Amino acid sequence: MEAFNRIWARRVLNGGAVVLIISDGWDTGNIRLLKKEADRLHRSCHHIIWLNPNLGYTDFQPLTQGVQAILPHVDKFLPIHNLNSLIELGRVLKQMNKKESFKAIA
After folding, report:
1. Structural domain tally of the chain?
2. Distance (Å, whole) CA 38 – CA 33
3. What is the SS3 assignment for 8?
4. What is the CATH number of the domain that holds 19?
């Protein structure tokens, strides 16, 4: 995330960008840096959607330090473990687009 923020964020993100993070949240690096970079990323885009394959498990609890570090900066926390979850992601993105289009018209 640090490398993305440093190299790409200013080039590819604008106020209306939706960022998709696909991760299980089992990060083992510097958690303080992860929090800082997640905050920076969130300020650089319109929405962050975190797609986590572990959310497909009914007993999953977001307890790891990596998950705890990023969650406050995430707008939507969704599963990505099967085709139905991909279909749901499509619905979420479509709904976000409708809301943004409505705001632009109003």
Report:
1. 1
2. 8
3. coil
4. 3.40.50
| Element (DSSP H or E) covering residue 47 | strand 47-52
pLDDT tens digits along 83-96: 999 999 999 999 98
User: What's the rounded Cα separation, in Å, for the pair 106 and 60?
Assistant: 40
* Residue in 51, 43, 47, 49 with CA at minimum distance from that of residue 16: 47
Spatial contact of 52 and 12, defined as CB atoms under 8 Å apart: no
96: exposed, middle or buried (Cβ count in 10 Å: 0-12, 13-18, 19+):
middle
Record the tokens describing residue 75, joined without a space: 């707008």
Other C-beta atoms lying within 10 Å of the C-beta of residue 45: 17
**What is the per-residue pLDDT across 9-50, written as a single tens digit (0 to 9) for each?**
988 998 789 999 999 988 888 999 999 999 999 999 999 999
Q: State how far the Cα of 102 lies from the Cα of 86, in Å rounded to an integer.
A: 24
Q: Which domain range does residue 33 map to?
A: 2-105
Instruction: Let me know: does 19 contact 13? Beta carbons within 8 Å.
Output: yes
How many other CB atoms are found less than 10 A from the CB of residue 103? 8
